[in-house]
Amino acid sequence: RGCCVQRCSTPSTSSMQRLRLAALERQIFDFLGFQWAPILGNFLQIIIVILGLFGTIQFRPRYIVVYTVWTALWVTWNVFIICFYLEVGGLSKETDLMTFNISMHRSWWREHGPGCIRRVVRPSAPGILDDYSYVSVTGCIIDFQYLEVIHSAIQILLSLIGFVYACYVISVFMEEEDSCKY
């Protein structure tokens, strides 16, 4: 178990650390935008990456298998998010799908992207609530949907790297387990 496990677990551990940090960063911005579906997905991603790290460090191949299966689901989720924000296949970024139809919130990047100038306009019509306002956003360097797509693409890339390392670690663990039997 000694040298080989140490040699293969180090790259896997650092790869999983990057995944956890990327998911945590994404979790923060989804919380700011009240995006409940991505918040739930990010939370599960963080938990499963921790489980995968534990499995790598503690020589638990089953935990790494759980991580590998989750990674396939995570990639699928991120492909869905890319399709959602690019409005592929009848999906629309204007729906409340990401908030489970609970609220009217949208991506935090919609109003706070790089270079965006946000202007709040209070409605002047009588009978409209005073705290309700319209937000005008102009001057964005990059539109919010492309920032969301970039986030998802980074998640996919890191997940694929983590998937490859996890498969490698599982194969090394299984080889060592087989060599110990004889």
Automatic annotation (TrEMBL):
It is a multi-pass membrane protein. The lineage of its organism: Eukaryota, Metazoa, Chordata, Craniata, Vertebrata. This is Sodium/potassium-transporting ATPase subunit beta-1-interacting protein. It comes from the Eukaryota. Coiled coil: none annotated. GO terms for biological process: regulation of sodium ion transport. One of its GO terms (cellular component) is plasma membrane. The keyword Cell membrane applies. It is found in: Cell membrane. Belongs to the NKAIN family.
